[in-house]
Specification:
RibDG_C, alpha/beta, Dihydrofolate Reductase, subunit A, globular, ten-stranded mixed beta sheet, Pyrimidine reductase family protein, oxidoreductase, 9 helices
C-alpha cells in the first residue's frame, strides 16, 4: 500500500510513513485517519465503483476489498457513534459494532466506550427490533427520529432497549439538530456509512466535514445509486484532498471541507 499527500502525489516530498511493499498496521491506519481536534466532526465513509455505483445488487460488499474492510473497521474503531439510515440497516443486515482488542487501549485512553454506538436515522421507525442491532448490542443502539414519530413505535423501540433521540420536528430528522443531539450525548467523533440518501441529506445540510471514499476498480452498470442521493445542492461543494492510499488498484481518498 502506498500513501501520498496531495503534494507528494504531484511529485514533491518523500513517500509517506509506509512503503509499497508491506501492509499498513492497524496503528498506522488509525494514525492516518485520526479525528481532528475540532468537535463535533462528522466523517462519511463510502465505496464507489468506477462508474459511480455505491452498491451492486443492493449491497456494497461486491465492490469492496479486504483492505477496504480494514479501513472500514479502523474508522469504526475511531468513532464514538456510527450514523446510518434505516434503509441501509434493512438492506445490509446491520449488526452492532463489536469491541476490538487492537483498539481497546486507545479507546480507553480517549475516554470512549468499548465500541461505537449505532445511531439509526428513521422517520417511520419501521424496523425489526428483534435483530441483534437492537436485541444484543454491546452499546445501546440509538434511534434518531422526529417529534411526531408514532408513539407505539417509539415504545417498541424503547422496550427493545434502544434509546430514542428526537432530532427534528414532524416526522423527519434535521441533520444539524441530529449532530447537536449526538454531541450533547458525548458523541463528538461521528461516522456515517450512508446510505446514499442519508449522505445526500447531510451534504445538503452542510454538516458533513469529511468524506473517506474508496474508489473500487470495478464496473457494474445497472441503475445502482451513487454514494450520495437526493436533491442536488445549489452550488457544488468543494472539498480538499487530505490523503490518498492505493492498493491493488483500489484508491482510498480522504477529503475535508476547507
Amino acid at each position: 500500500m502506498t500513501y501520498e499527500t496531495p503534494a507528494q502525489a504531484s511529485g514533491g516530498g518523500e513517500r509517506g510513513a509506509a512503503g509499497a511493499d508491506r501492509e499498513w498496521s492497524l496503528a498506522e491506519l488509525a494514525a492516518a485517519y485520526a479525528y481532528p481536534a475540532k468537535r463535533p466532526w462528522l466523517r462519511g465513509n463510502m465505496v464507489s465503483s468506477l462508474d459511480g455505483a455505491a452498491q451492486h445488487d443492493g449491497h456494497s460488499q461486491p465492490i469492496s476489498s479486504a483492505t477496504d474492510m480494514r479501513i472500514f473497521g479502523t474508522l469504526r474503531a475511531l468513532a464514538d457513534v456510527v450514523v446510518v439510515g434505516a434503509e441501509t440497516v434493512r438492506q445490509e443486515g446491520y449488526r452492532p459494532a463489536r469491541a476490538r482488542a487492537d483498539f481497546a487501549a486507545a479507546r480507553e485512553a480517549a475516554g470512549q466506550g468499548p465500541a461505537p454506538a449505532i445511531a439509526v436515522v428513521t422517520a417511520s421507525l419501521d424496523l425489526d427490533f428483534s435483530l441483534p442491532l437492537f436485541a444484543s448490542p454491546l452499546v445501546p443502539t440509538l434511534i434518531l427520529t422526529g417529534a411526531a414519530a408514532a408513539p407505539e413505535k417509539v415504545a417498541a423501540a424503547e422496550k427493545a432497549g434502544a434509546r430514542v433521540v428526537v432530532a427534528g420536528e414532524g416526522m423527519g430528522v434535521d441533520p444539524e439538530r441530529a449532530v447537536r443531539a449526538l454531541a450533547g450525548l458525548g458523541h463528538h467523533r461521528l461516522l456515517t456509512e450512508g446510505g446514499p440518501r442519508l449522505l445526500g441529506q447531510l451534504i445538503a445540510a452542510e454538516v458533513l466535514d469529511e468524506l473517506c471514499l474508496t474508489l473500487s476498480p470495478t464496473l457494474t452498470a445497472g441503475d445502482a445509486q451513487r454514494v450520495a442521493g437526493g436533491p442536488s445542492v445549489a452550488v457544488p461543494r468543494r472539498f480538499e484532498l487530505v490523503s490518498l492510499l492505493e492498493e491493488d488498484g483500489f484508491l482510498f481518498g480522504r477529503y475535508r471541507r476547507p
